[in-house]
Design brief:
Layout (H helix, E strand, L loop, with lengths): L9 H29 L1 H4 L6 H33 L1 H20 L4 H4 L2 H31 L5 H27 L3 H6 L4 H4 L1 H12 L6 H8 L3 E2 L2 H8 L1 H11 L3 H15 L7 H29 L1 H25 L2 H28 L7 H26 L7 H11 L1 H9 L24 E2 L2
Antiparallel strand pairs: 1-2
Helix pairs in contact: 1-3, 1-4, 1-6, 1-7, 1-10, 1-14, 3-4, 3-6, 3-18, 4-6, 4-10, 6-7, 6-18, 7-15, 7-17, 13-18, 13-20, 14-15, 14-16, 14-18, 15-16, 15-17, 16-17, 16-19, 16-20, 18-19
């Protein structure tokens, strides 16, 4: 299949739209993480047992990750059938609506056990939205990018995700500083209500995008698949398994963002909410620069070595960061937090959009990325819940959590070592073994 080059300026436009859209969408997704660690145990769960309330609240954070594989099956299928752009618009609107509804929910004191049930339902909708967001945005930027700069342009999706996390953290800093009464009554709701503006802004940005040249050429050539999943599992099952294993590296992010925050602000350490939120904010600020820098390096030396630095390095740095929290030394926490999450983890985070996407042909790329990443991310989401259990009744066994996180970094290392290097392969030849199957009955004219 001959793929025309993207029009001049279109790669930058696609990358910018992916960055802004991902930042807006993941602002919604990550404000839930801060609230789950700091607010929801007291609003939606039984305050008479604080340890159990925290555990249940962190479990609701993981619920969205459980919903993501299901959402990936549907959104991946339609993304490879009808195009990347439509999925990108749909996911953003769904995220904005579900997040706004969370801000409107009644508390446990008002409606009893119905409150956490409604919270979980809204969180499931967030998970379905997130299932298609990164895969569609990554496919959009990768297929618009020049072959020799796919790493750089596709990294904009993940730097946008970090931008959304930074925005969410900055919004929560003044909210967390409110007096307890105002914080628990109305203050925590404000960041969720702002999601309406997020949805409107994202819709305006994304509806103006053009579909990618690769998908457009596929439609013109009658190579759109009726059942992308069938071809994906028949021809790319090994790559799907690699992406699932690689996606476990996201456990570093969830442990850093949620469990470490709860640990540091708990009774055993006693750091203030605002000071720890600033650690996350500064780490994400550094990541905004580190992610495209690592991705650019991967365009020069390959995806695998850069990804391996991020995965293996994160396993080591999690020990250092959690140890720093246990000391109660804020300067030490700040420096190691920024180094661990802002620099080292960014190596894997900046490269995986191109590394995973290049494993698949255009016809199954969105399905392959969505299903592979979301299954792995589901494990990463519940890593927070497991970490809370491993930390013991007092929530202070940080070394067990560090060993657990390091263990979850082993499969990504193995996946990278077993994968092909794809940085030098032309875009139209990516996943080329799928191209032998164009005569199969799954192919239909669009």
């Amino acid at each position: 299949m001959s793929v025309p080059a993207a029009p001049p300026g279109q790669p930058k436009k696609a990358a910018t739209a992916a960055w802004i859209g991902s930042a807006l969408e993941y602002y919604d997704f990550f404000i839930y993480g801060s609230a789950a660690a700091l607010i929801f145990p007291k609003v939606f769960f039984d305050e008479s047992d604080p340890a159990t309330a925290t555990l249940l609240s962190l479990a609701t954070f993981g619920v969205a990750y459980a919903a993501r594989p299901v959402g990936a099956l549907f959104l991946g299928h339609f993304g490879d059938r009808v195009g990347r752009k439509k999925i990108m618009v749909f996911t953003l609107l769904l995220m904005g609506l579900s997040t706004f509804l969370i801000g409107c929910l009644p508390s446990r004191a008002q409606v009893g056990s119905l409150a956490p049930v409604l919270l979980v339902l809204c969180r499931v909708l967030q998970g379905v939205s997130a299932a298609g967001e990164q895969a569609s945005a990554n496919s959009m930027t990768l297929e618009h990018a020049p072959s020799d700069r796919r790493g750089f342009f596709s990294s904009f999706t993940l730097s946008g995700t970090q931008g959304g996390q930074l925005l969410a953290t900055l919004v929560f800093i003044p909210i967390a500083a409110l007096p307890e009464k105002q914080l628990l009554s109305w203050g925590w709701r404000v960041p969720f209500w702002l999601s309406i503006a997020v949805a409107v802004a994202g819709y305006v940005i994304r509806r103006k995008l053009e579909e990618t040249p690769a998908f457009t050429a596929q439609q013109a050539g009658g190579e759109v698949l009726r059942l992308p999943l069938a071809v994906l599992l028949r021809e790319h099952w090994a790559d799907v398994l690699r992406v699932i294993a690689g996606a476990l590296v996201a456990s570093v992010s969830t442990i850093f963002t949620v469990w470490a925050l709860a640990y540091a602000t708990g009774d055993s350490v006693g750091m203030s909410r605002s000071s720890m939120l600033w650690v996350g904010a500064l780490a994400n600020l550094v990541a905004l620069a580190a992610i495209p820098a690592w991705a650019t390096l991967s365009d020069r030396i390959g995806r695998r070595p850069v990804y391996l630095v991020g995965a293996a390095g994160s396993a080591v740095m999690m020990f250092a960061y959690l140890w720093a929290i246990s000391t109660g030394s804020y300067p030490l926490i700040l420096v190691l937090g920024v180094l661990a999450f802002g620099v080292v983890y960014s190596a894997a985070n900046g490269v995986w959009p191109s590394f995973y996407g290049e494993m698949f042909a255009t016809r199954v790329r969105l399905s392959g990325m969505a299903i592979g990443t979301q299954v792995g991310f589901a494990v990463a989401g519940f890593a927070v819940t497991f970490a809370a259990q491993l930390a013991g009744p007092n929530g202070d066994d940080w070394s067990s959590v560090a060993f657990f996180t390091a263990a979850l970094c082993v499969p990504p290392v193995i996946a990278a070592l077993s994968a092909r290097e794809t940085a030098r392969i032309p875009t139209e030849q990516l996943g080329e073994r799928d191209l032998r199957e164009t005569a199969r009955p799954e192919a239909v004219t669009a």
